[in-house]
Write a structure and sequence with these properties.
single chain, mainly alpha, three-stranded antiparallel β-sheet, two-stranded antiparallel sheet, globular
């Protein structure tokens, strides 16, 4: 994994070099990296995180969550019709290269721990304190790797389900159908709004929050959270 951070540069010098053809325009590096990275590392996708400092991650080994899409669908008890949606979304989310050889159970042990560590830091989520996350305790739960409802606190399961399903743009009504959730206002107040405030999901039409065609999608921070890689 190659990680870089940018530093402020003199804009007048940049404009001068660009005019002479000695430098590329701002943004060209991002476009070219997205365009050509897969030629060198099949399936890899770069991450560009705009925080206080612009942060870039270029994976040198690529393993995506999409390879476990059927496992996640079964574990979180999503209906069959959601499978291709989940697979399409998760194939763009890269896991930590250090667990490239991990099987399903080892992956879950890693993710449940990191989800808890990350979630507990995001006060907007009010992450459940009673969520089991230690490997020794996880393994005591019957069928922990087969049924998420057995292992995850109810709120944890809903938060993770929304993140999984918004890995590909999704409307709130569709989310509620796939999650068998009935009360729209409670769904928004307890899950959608906190996830937005935490910076993990965003609206596709933020300028029109009440648009009937409004959809939600994972942010890059949300992708890192779901993959257990958020800093």
């Amino acid at each position: 994994m190659i990680i870089s951070e940018s530093f402020l540069k003199n804009p007048n010098i940049r404009k001068f070099f660009t005019a002479l053809g000695w430098a590329d325009e701002i943004g060209s590096g991002v476009r070219n990296t997205r365009k050509y990275l897969s030629y060198y590392i099949p399936g890899a996708e770069p991450l560009f995180i705009e925080d206080d400092l612009f942060h870039t991650e270029i994976p040198l080994v690529s393993i995506q969550m999409g390879g476990f899409a059927s496992k996640f669908k079964h574990w979180l008890e999503f209906p069959d019709e959601s499978y291709f949606h989940i697979e399409e979304g998760l194939k763009h989310i890269a896991l930590d290269p250090s667990i490239a050889e991990a099987g399903w159970e080892d992956l879950l042990l890693h993710l449940v721990l990191t989800w808890h560590q990350q979630g507990a830091k995001l006060h907007e989520l009010k992450w459940p304190e009673k969520q089991i996350f230690a490997k020794e305790e996880i393994k005591k739960v019957p069928s922990w790797s087969e049924k998420g409802a057995n292992l995850l606190h109810k709120k944890t399961r809903y938060l993770l389900s929304i993140l999984m399903l918004t890995s590909k743009e999704t409307g709130i009504d569709q989310l509620m159908v796939w999650m068998s959730y009935k009360k729209r206002q409670t769904f928004r107040e307890n899950y959608m709004i906190p996830l937005q405030k935490a910076g993990l999901i965003s609206m596709t039409k933020p300028e029109k929050p009440n648009d009937p065609e409004q959809q939600y999608k994972l942010t890059e921070q949300g992708q890192l959270f779901l993959a257990g890689r958020m800093m």
